[in-house]
Amino acid sequence: MNQSSAEHSILALFRLHGQTALVTGGNRGLGLAVAQGLAEAGANIVIASRDEATNQQAEETLRSRYGIECISTVCDVTDEQSVSNAVARAVDRFGKIDILVNSAGINIRGAIETLSLDDFTKVQQVNVTGTWLACRAVVPVMKEHGYGRIINMGSMLALTAMPDRTPYATSKGAILQLTRALALEVAKEGITVNAILPGPFATEINLPLLDDPEKYQAFVAKIPLGRWGELHEISGMALYLASRASSYVTGACFSVDGGWVAQ
User: Fold this and answer.
1) Catalytic residue at 168?
2) Which long-range contacts (CB under 8 A, 24 or more apart) does 213-220 make?
3) Segment holding 213, helix H or strand E
């Protein structure tokens, strides 16, 4: 195989050796599953989440299981300085950030008349403002190196809707438009911006549904594949969007939802 074909072999395009990924909310759930997939492909990982103890557990797991370099930093994505500090720590340790995964998020459910303004605002601050702050902090680093992959974790509720989800659905609709607008803004800088739209996965954020057999079965009945997603099933899409294999994809969203939004 000559050098040109070696550089463009499909498997080589998916390798992330020598790259650094910053994953907000990367210490548990879908964020950790994504971090594991990127680490297995060879990326060094920076976990940025609020819980120091859980951060350290995830850091140790990633380092020992995949043999990559991994650090963690306590980060509140709603706090501008905290986000800036996390990015600075990543750059200080690895010299660059090739991949940003915005996975930090919360959900507060309830009928609109039962929710407070604080409930609504809190969801927007974490899901939307947090994603925007991380993008803003990382984009200059990526521009400096002429390369970057930004992956925003949206939701199928960016494309469809459910009752009792007004704060969350609003925030995830905003994530989709943030993804599109930023993709256009940085397209000529060697940076792509895409969104993953997960459906029902067995994560902490969905415990209220998992713990209620009636609600759980009602969900399963609406999923064409007939089951909830398993955490590892988010990793393949994340790896594709984080890699050079997706070099001609930007401003796009990818549903990973068992077929829910196809109905």
Assistant:
1) yes
2) none
3) helix 213-221
42-to-14, 19, 58, 81, 235 alpha-carbon distances in Å: 10, 8, 16, 29, 14
Q: Which of 66, 168, 240, 248 is catalytic?
A: 168
**Confidence label for 231 from pLDDT (cuts 50, 70 and 90):** very high
State residue 19's pLDDT score: 98
- Calculate the average pLDDT of the chain: 94
Give the three-class secondary structure for 109: coil
CA-based max dimension of the chain: 65
**What is residue 201's DSSP assignment?**
B
Q: How do residues 68-103 score in pLDDT, each as one tens digit?
A: 999 999 999 999 999 999 999 999 999 999 999 999
Q: Report how far Cα 43 is from the mean position of its chain's Cα atoms.
A: 15
Rounded Cα distance between 184 and 251, Å, is 7
